[in-house]
Design a protein that fits this description.
41% of the residues lie in helices and 13% in strands. By secondary structure, the chain is an alpha/beta fold. Helix 2 crosses helix 3. The structure holds cobalamin and iron/sulfur cluster.
């Protein structure tokens, strides 16, 4: 145990670290500015600050809380150990929000700390997912425990106090298992919050918070439902307002609401109503990016209220356009017959769309992926598309099934970043699958399609100056940096000594030579790509007819689509899906006499494709005339 320095008054040091992970060369992925602050860190930091303010350890042992995000800050374990020692030797390092791909790095951070006698606790989705789904702890978690690292499974809202009390006594338990009880987060005293000096290390005036947890659906690749549950738990409008005001007071007005599916947050409407009040009556110009499912447009008022509540961007879990794949993944709620309707609805209100697309479902082949992407480009009015490799993430049903069947899965958790192939596929070799992922970005983001996306956006009233940075970000991360856009940041930092345990220290000549060459290459590439995109935007803006642009994707949904659009006719599964929806619509009398897709005249709001609903004009103008958002995501 660390010795107490007699000259100092003891202060309990609670240090929270959100770890990063390693790149393919074994260096920590880090940036001068990372994309956005982590909500997991915000949640645990705020609870810890609450405990400090309540003097949980009594007046004689104040708690100092410090947070760092390794994606933008170098973690110096010696300094941490020294800090604890200098403050009397009592402290805890909490490694926060650790995803599976971050677990090896988390353990590498923990190792020297444990050698220095520091207490370490790891929490987050990897440990929670494993405890939720596996009968026995996997080897990597046992190994961590073998180093004396403690594990926290479940949510911290009702368990952090106990951990701090145990740590202060030097009696941290090897395992804290809170998986059986999902805490109520409705009105907690310390909702997620990070101070501004922390947010300044990320791009733009953006922070994040979860307005709710849990999702009712059952996708087999999903970890969320097994960790956070299928029941919607949500913060009250008062609590959301508290979060917004705390951030507004420190100059932050953009937010990423991290709910995996805000449309299924049971209290979405009350939350939106409160935000609308803040925007329209109290003059708080707050903006949001949210995540939703592909049926969100069917919830009455959801899209229109999103607009009024200041949503400018929306992430949609499209995942795939082959119904056979969707059914196999238990993603039955994704109906190809609804995709165009849903996307046109977002276009109608001028909100930028991003869709996630998963590569490697059981019917996917390199050819089918290429073909599907061409259909998407032609027929779906979507802005950004981002790709993921189907990955059996610990905590998902897919992982559990493969684990129980003894099917090979790569034992290196660092690769579980949904950018690496980690298991076998019936129709693709590992190399083909990896190549399909790499080339997907280039297939979607061609010059021709850049122009189409920009023309569609312009004709839909979307601010091009706001779209451009996002388009740049999502199209360039993989070709420039070789990382997913969700992991990218501004200016890559690498430290020669911060290499994965077990890999050799490179000579300074090799390391710095390659680093410098890399930086130069990337700067040139970034400048070229940005200038190129700008040229396309200018070309569209200069076209006097650009506002009248129309194409197949932007045309309103009509019955005949089902006869000729490839989305609905490309294979047996697509045709069957259309037939099934027609039957369901006929049985339920769902608006269009059993015809799917729905004729334009019967669509919910009667507007035409990319036209604008009169009732929304003011809100739209208000948002579209703003300066471009500073962050690529929000
Ligand atoms: C938001 C989010 C992001 C944001 C992160 C920034 C932000 N704004 O927060 C962005 C978009 C950048 C992102 C990126 C990625 N993400 Co993400 N993300 C999420 C999401 C939707 C919410 C995270 C969150 O805030 N949860 C709420 C918090 C409060 O929950 P929590 O993290 O579990 O923390 C609680 C407990 O675990 C516990 N706890 C956690 N740590 C600690 C520590 C201590 C000491 C204690 C006591 C307790 C404790 O208490 C916390 C509070 O209750 C989750 C899904 C989800 N529902 O969580 C996926 C999720 C975490 N992401 C995932 C993945 C795979 C990724 C990417 C790899 C994907 C990709 N290629 O882009 C990247 C990797 C990023 C990186 N390595 O840098 C997976 C991880 C699965 C796994 N088994 O590893 C998840 C679960 C989604 C999924 N597909 O299943 N992500
Ligand atoms: S809709 Fe999204 S969050 Fe919900 S179960 Fe499916 S993948 Fe998970």
């Amino acid at each position: 145990m660390l010795k107490r320095t007699p000259t100092t008054k003891a202060r309990f040091q609670l240090i929270l670290i959100k770890p990063s992970h390693y790149d393919n060369d074994g260096y920590v992925v880090q940036w001068i500015r990372s994309t956005m602050p982590s909500n997991s860190l915000a949640a645990v930091y705020s609870l810890a600050k609450g405990a400090a303010e309540r003097e949980l350890l009594g007046p004689d042992l104040p708690i100092d809380v410090m947070a760092m995000d390794e994606t933008n800050t170098r973690v110096k374990t010696k300094e941490i150990a020294r800090r604890i020692a200098e403050n009397g030797g009592r402290g805890l390092v909490g490694i926060v929000g650790v995803q599976s791909n971050e677990f090896p790095r988390a353990v590498d951070i923990a190792r020297p700390l444990r050698e220095a006698g520091v207490q370490v606790l790891i929490g987050g989705f990897h440990v929670s997912g494993c405890l939720a789904m596996l009968k026995e702890l996997p080897g990597d978690i046992k190994e961590a425990q073998g180093l004396g690292v403690s594990i926290y499974a479940g949510e911290a809202e009702e368990g952090l106090d106990e951990v701090i009390l145990d740590a202060a006594r030097g009696e941290l338990r090897p395992l804290y298992d809170h998986m059986k009880h999902l805490p109520d987060i409705g009105n907690i005293a310390s909702p997620p919050f990070l101070p501004n000096d922390f947010i300044e290390r990320t791009i733009g005036n953006v922070t994040s918070f979860d307005a709710g947890r849990g999702c009712p659906f059952q996708c087999s690749f999903c970890t969320i439902i097994n960790v956070q549950g299928r029941k919607s738990r949500y913060r009250t409008p008062d609590s959301v307002e508290q979060i917004l005001r705390m951030n507004w007071d420190q100059g932050i007005n953009r937010f990423f609401i991290t709910d995996d599916n805000f449309a299924r947050n049971k209290d979405w409407e009350a939350i939106f109503d409160r935000i609308i009040k803040l925007r329209e009556e109290d003059g708080m110009d707050v903006r949001f990016c949210i995540q939703v499912d592909t049926l969100c447009h069917k919830i009455p008022g959801f899209i229109d209220k999103s607009r009024r509540a200041g949503v400018t961007r929306v992430f949609i879990g499209l995942e795939n356009i082959n119904p056979a794949n969707l059914i196999a993944a238990k993603k039955r709620q994704n109906k190809i017959t609804e995709y165009r309707k849903m996307l046109l609805e977002w276009k109608r209100v001028g909100i930028i769309t991003y869709a996630g697309y998963i590569l490697g479902f059981e019917n996917d082949t390199p050819e089918s992926i290429r073909h599907d992407l061409e259909i998407i480009k032609k027929e779906l009015p979507l802005d950004m598309l981002e790709f993921f490799i189907l990955t059996p993430l610990p905590g998902s049903e897919d992982h559990k099934v493969l684990h129980e069947k003894g099917v090979w899965m790569d034992p290196d958790m660092n690769k579980y970043d949904v950018e690496h192939v980690v298991t076998g596929h019936a129709k693709m070799t590992e190399a083909e699958w990896t190549e399909a992922y790499r080339t997907a970005w280039g297939i979607y983001y061609t010059d021709e399609h850049f122009e189409t996306i920009i023309r569609r956006a312009y004709a839909s009233g979307i601010n091009l100056r706001s779209l451009m940075p996002v388009l740049f970000w999502f199209s360039s991360a993989v070709p420039v940096e070789g990382v997913h856009p969700l992991q990218w940041g501004i200016f890559r930092i690498k430290y020669r000594h911060d290499r994965r345990a077990g890999l050799p220290l490179e000579s300074p000549f090799v390391f710095y030579g390659r680093y410098a060459a890399d930086i130069a290459r990337k700067l040139v590439l970034v400048a070229k790509r940005w200038r190129h995109l700008k040229r396309i935007v200018r070309k569209v803006e200069a076209d006097p007819h650009a506002k009248l642009y129309k194409d197949e994707a932007l045309t309103p949904v009509v019955d005949e689509d089902a006869e000729h659009m490839e989305l609905y006719t490309q294979n047996e599964a697509a045709r069957t899906a259309v037939e099934r929806e027609r039957r369901v619509a006929a049985k339920t009398g769902n608006g269009n006499g059993g015809k799917v897709p729905v004729p334009a005249g019967l669509r919910t709001n009667g507007h035409q494709g990319n036209g604008h609903d009169a009732g929304l004009q003011d809100a739209e103008l208000h948002i579209n005339e703003q300066n471009e958002p500073a962050s690529p995501l929000v």
